[in-house]
Amino acid sequence: MVDAEPLDAVVIGAGFAGLYMVYRLREQGFSVQGFERGDGVGGTWYWNRYPGARCDSEIMFYSFSFLPDLEQEWPLTERYPGQPDILRYLEEVASRLDLRKDFTFGAEVTALEFDEAAGRWTLRTAQGHQVTARYVVTAVGCLSTANQPRFPGADSFRGLTLHTGNWPREPVDLAAQRVAVIGTGASGIQAIPVIAERAAHLTVFQRTAQFTIPAENGPLDDQFVALWKQNYPEWRRRARHSPAGFAYNPSITSAFEVSAAERRAAFEAAWGAGGFTFLSGTFRDLALDEEANETAADFVRSKIDEIVRDPEVAEMLKPRDFPIGTKRLPLDTNYYETFNRPNVTLVDLKRTPVEEITPAGIRTSAGHHDLDVIVYATGFDALTGPLEALGIRGRGGRSLRDAWREGPRTYLGVAVPGFPNLFTITGPGSPSVLSNMPVSIEQHVEWIGDCLAWARGHGAKVIEATEQAAAGWTDHVQQVAGHTLHPKAASWYMGANIPGKPRIFLPYIGGVGNYRDRCAAVAANGYEGFVTSGEGSGDHGARPGDHRAA
Ligand code: NAP
């Protein structure tokens, strides 16, 4: 399966990002081929099929803006789209744009090597494909490499072992089963209430209690949908220039500008309305000021007391280890309520850690839990994991893993010095996971498409971010994060969930709108921070002392 004819570009991944990137490059006249390890399109929504999987972005914002017909035709049924709906949406996009013919499915990229003399990449897959291309664009998602803890004895378990991020395509019947869920992040919090309804017994193994806010999911009113669709262009415009890719106005009031009673009323109203506006829509300083943050955290803890009948269980569920919002705030449907069910048990792993997994279940320091199914809801090696897994080797054969040993260094989260002609959609250092993903993906895809067209127009063989630009951007990403409470949490944003991973704030928290402006300015200044080389490029932008071979 060796492709002799070099391509202009390869794109890795067939989720929102990969589908749009392949389409965009094809429309721009580049020869392009997509590679996807799954057997179909969908990316995140292909792999995360666990019970209760749903998007926490409201459906009106969770779609492409570049398909106005589909935008009008696609039914906006419920407030938050479920995994099957989003997968159907992406399948429809792939069909309408005739994209499947441009992808190789079931192809897991294991090596990407840059040939400095030719200025091209060679891609290899575990299935034996090999192609060369001028450009590589990664569209591998930020949360696609599962974090699978290795408990002693894990392989001896005789029952079924599952991971939320890699759920089987065929239905899993949990009825009458004794199920464990390990992990209480956004995935566990969505899965636990649904599994509890199906299973004979559910044991939740919690290491760190999480804050969660009601999603208040439900059907959307026809009139609301009609009005929304009429005004779609304006909603989209606002989302693009907002802090997080939604068209809502953040609060401009400090938590301490109002009385305690008014504060409580504001939190109560936001809790009742459901969704992320609990933080951004109530008070402006919750992400910045510990005392202000504590007022929101206290409110959620008081809600746990109201909802959970057993005071001991309520106490175990109360988060106390980190400021609210500094770990991704999950949205839930009946999460705390689930712990009132007679068939649900909560185990606090900090008090009674897992000692081993046995053929029949899980043994903690307090005793054995007999189980038929173990569900790992233990998250992902976020942002860097999916990129490092591609076996990328740039200039001098240096691996990306080695280049990022101290943490990722990127320019705008989209390019890496030493790895020319490689572009990373929603890479580390971009708003990515702190934003509504389709908005950030569209911005990156369009920016990368324009950049490649510009490079082609300038006859460049190679375009590469400079060390200086990447160092400046990486510092800026950390500085902005340092103004918030985020670095205080042992979160996956900080790489803290993966043993040995450097502690560095991975996404860019400066806001989607600001980031967009910054990228636009870089482009307007002739791709400032990049150097090009090659026939006809006139070594555009090459800095003194830059003697790289073209
Ligand atoms: P996560 O937020 O990283 O949560 C993983 C959970 O597993 C945490 O409770 C963690 O505990 C626990 N854990 C990890 N290793 C463990 C170990 N060795 N022993 C015991 N417990 C362990 O992962 P996630 O829930 O899959 O969510 C990841 C991200 O995916 C979310 O933050 C969100 O961005 C995205 N997501 C989005 C949606 C949505 O839009 N609806 C849904 C699901 C996920 P500690 O806290 O102690 O580390």
Explain how this protein is built.
The protein has 17 helices and 20 strands. With 550 residues, it is α/β, with parallel strands linked by helices. The strands form five sheets. Strands 1, 2, 3, 4, 5, 6, 17 and 18 form an eight-stranded mixed sheet that branches. Helix 10 runs antiparallel to helix 11 and helix 15 (437-457) packs parallel to helix 17 (512-524). The radius of gyration is 24 Å and the shape is globular. It binds NADP nicotinamide-adenine-dinucleotide phosphate. Residues 54-56, 143, 149, 164, 182-188, 190, 207-208, 328, 349, 377-380, 433, 492, 497 line the site of NADP nicotinamide-adenine-dinucleotide phosphate. NADP nicotinamide-adenine-dinucleotide phosphate binds next to helix 5.
The distinct bound ligands, ions and cofactors come out as: NADP nicotinamide-adenine-dinucleotide phosphate
Backbone shape: globular
> Given the helix and strand composition, which structural class is it?
alpha/beta
Number of helices: 17
Low-confidence stretches: 538-550
- Roughly how much helix do the residues carry, as a percent range? 25-40%
Tell me how many strands there are: 20
Please outline the major beta sheet.
8 strands, mixed
Give the N-terminus to C-terminus distance in angstroms. 29 Å
Strand content: 15-25%
Question: Overall pLDDT, averaged?
Answer: 95
| Rg over alpha carbons | 24 Å
